[in-house]
């Protein structure tokens, strides 16, 4: 047989030949051009040519403890040597999953009852939807199946999770969303607020829209409301004043389960352990992943309160089993790594570090909103932030086709050794939680240089 690759092929060439990438133009990728990341050290990664980058998005908002945390590696090795794999189906169990469940329930910001483990954020959201449907059936409320989420919300890409997601490219040509998934206006004051409308009035309008939708659909048909405390992939959208305060009583009034998708916000990102604490959210279910294991191994969890769990328990008893679960959900090695993440956060008082460094992070971010003519809005909270770029600040618009301005700035920034994230015309930052003030300066000094360069080029 002819050899399909040879020693002269670079990794980049093999990538173009053999890999299909997620969230990538598959046709364009055949021409190559992927950056192959070779190794990591602290908040930095190195590509295959040895070039160093400050990872200002922590991979996919997820590598909270940086790319070289020895204790996580040791925890994985210890667990693999003892018991690399077991499951929790049909009344089997293992210590790492039990301990992690107990830790998460104890640290939850509101009383929670049970944890269920999966492998990814998408799987966890899918599982939560199935639990919610199962519960409605258990309660004899067979019609209560509709789910409300927000435009611009990102909840993953499995069929049901992508239906929750409110970003059109995630639906296009996939025949999604499924019926019964309803999307309401994004709480994005900069883009959705009306002339002269205060943030608080904007929140009132959005909550009225949600209540009107519930009434129009029939409250007895609406099962749950899913939301990220801060929208990440939708453009780092921080809720406007009064949003959660006004929304939660409406959901309670109609018996609608509130699910906080903490996949990005969880474990310190917004300056509190959970985004729900930062915004006074009292969810019935929480979806956790990403920083839970600092992304060293795949793991995610659904936490639920008794109001959710009890009917599910009754139904599973009647049927004989809650017939849902994944072979690797809460794998002992992944669970051991997650426990070590929690140990490290506690022992190093990482929350105090985040609170301190995020003051500087937000100050530098917002200063660019004042100084640069290209920054329409600088927004964020804790260690997550974004710059929405425009060429006309007053009109809040760009003379360039959508995405090109931020795309151009993103490329310049990458050349300067900083990896950010671009969504439309928004540049997002969500660095590892271990970042120092000096490293925050490294990011924003370079962002500033890039913005000045672009300003000069287009003037
Ligand atoms: N929920 C949120 C808020 C996310 O940001 C993501 C991923 O970015 C997901 C869910 C999906 O997680 P995964 O990619 O692990 O399926």
From TrEMBL:
A single GO BP: gamma-aminobutyric acid metabolic process
Cofactor: pyridoxal 5'-phosphate
InterPro entries membership: Aminotrans_3, Aminotrans_3_PPA_site, PyrdxlP-dep_Trfase, PyrdxlP-dep_Trfase_major, PyrdxlP-dep_Trfase_small
Stored SUPFAM superfamilies: PLP-dependent transferases
Alphabetical UniProt keywords: Aminotransferase, Pyridoxal phosphate, Transferase
One Gene Ontology term of the molecular function aspect: pyridoxal phosphate binding
PROSITE patterns for the chain: AA_TRANSFER_CLASS_3 (PS00600)
Keyword Kinase: no
Pfam families reported in the protein's UniProt record: Aminotran_3
Domain of life from the UniProt record: Bacteria
Record bears the keyword Transferase: yes
Family matches, as Gene3D superfamilies: Aspartate Aminotransferase, domain 1, Type I PLP-dependent aspartate aminotransferase-like (Major domain)
UniProt xrefs under PANTHER family: ADENOSYLMETHIONINE-8-AMINO-7-OXONONANOATE AMINOTRANSFERASE (PTHR42684)
Protein family membership: Belongs to the class-III pyridoxal-phosphate-dependent aminotransferase family.
Entry protein name: Aspartate aminotransferase family protein
Organism encoding this protein: Gluconobacter kanchanaburiensis NBRC 103587
């Amino acid at each position: 047989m002819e050899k399909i690759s040879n020693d002269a092929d670079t990794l980049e060439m093999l990538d173009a030949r053999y890999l299909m990438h997620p969230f990538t133009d598959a046709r364009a990728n055949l021409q190559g051009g992927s950056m192959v990341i070779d190794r990591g050290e602290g908040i930095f990664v190195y590509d295959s040519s040895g070039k160093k980058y400050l990872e200002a998005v922590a991979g996919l908002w997820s590598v909270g403890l940086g790319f070289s945390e020895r204790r996580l590696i040791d925890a994985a090795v210890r667990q693999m040597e003892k018991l690399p794999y077991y499951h929790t189906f049909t009344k089997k169990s293992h210590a790492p999953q039990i301990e992690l469940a107990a830790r998460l329930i104890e640290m939850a910001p509101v009383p929670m009852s049970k944890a269920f483990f999966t492998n990814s954020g998408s799987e966890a959201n899918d599982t939560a939807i199935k639990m919610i449907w199962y519960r409605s059936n258990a309660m004899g409320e067979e019609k209560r199946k509709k789910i409300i989420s927000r435009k611009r919300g990102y909840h993953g890409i499995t069929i049901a999770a992508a239906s929750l997601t409110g970003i059109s490219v995630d639906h296009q040509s996939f025949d999604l969303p499924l019926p019964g998934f309803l999307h309401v206006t994004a709480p994005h004051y900069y883009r959705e607020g009306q002339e002269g409308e205060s943030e608080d009035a904007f929140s009132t309008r959005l909550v009225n829209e949600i209540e009107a939708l519930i009434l129009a659909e029939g409250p007895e048909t609406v099962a749950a409301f899913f939301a990220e405390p801060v929208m990440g992939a939708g453009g780092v959208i921080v809720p406007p004043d009064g949003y959660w305060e006004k929304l939660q009583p409406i959901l309670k009034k109609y018996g609608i389960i509130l699910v906080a998708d903490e996949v990005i916000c969880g474990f310190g990102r917004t300056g509190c352990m959970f985004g729900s604490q930062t915004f006074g959210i009292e969810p019935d279910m929480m979806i956790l992943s990403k920083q839970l294991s600092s992304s060293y191994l795949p793991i995610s969890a659904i936490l639920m309160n008794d109001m959710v769990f009890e009917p599910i328990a009754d139904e599973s008893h009647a049927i004989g089993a809650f017939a849902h679960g994944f072979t690797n959900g809460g794998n002992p090695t992944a669970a051991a790594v997650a426990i070590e993440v929690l140990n490290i956060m506690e022992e190093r008082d990482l929350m105090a570090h985040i609170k301190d460094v995020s003051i500087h992070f937000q100050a530098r971010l917002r200063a660019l909103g004042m100084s640069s003519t290209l920054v329409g809005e600088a927004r964020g909270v804790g260690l997550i932030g974004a710059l929405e770029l425009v060429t006309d600040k007053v009109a809040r618009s760009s003379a360039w086709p959508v995405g090109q301005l931020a795309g151009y700035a993103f490329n310049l920034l990458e050349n300067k050794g900083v990896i950010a994230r671009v969504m439309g015309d928004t540049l997002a930052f969500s660095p590892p939680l271990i970042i120092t003030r000096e490293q925050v300066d490294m990011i924003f000094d370079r962002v500033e240089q890039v913005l000045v360069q672009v300003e000069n080029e287009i003037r």
